[in-house]
Amino acid sequence: MPDIVSLRDAMDRLGTLAVPVDLWETKDAYHLRADLPGVTPDELEINATSESLSISGEVKGQADVTEDGWLRQERRVGKFQRAFSLPVAIDPSKVEATFENGVLSLVLPKAESTKPRTIKVNATNANSN
Length: 129
What we know:
It is built from 1 helix and 7 strands, in the order H-E-E-E-E-E-E-E. With 129 residues, it is mostly beta strands.
């Protein structure tokens, strides 16, 4: 039977932490939430273009514990990066980011050019000459 490897295990083998995210769409925007315990807003780098979004940073280990002092170390440390291609263009200048209790929340407004608009039809009377 082949080995089944979780995404988190595969990412750890590559030296990059897997950061869990939720990404969903509403009429006017995409929304993203990422769990980033142990990270401060200053340690985050967020880049947005009209077609994509990337989030990167680093979860740092505890400097006050020596390597031989650990009894158990289960919390993951290291660099992380997530990148997403978006199906509809966004307006990168209007992206909003908040960070509260270790959770990053992003609002990525869709570009105005991608939103449906109502077209008014002007009727002309074909019988008048």
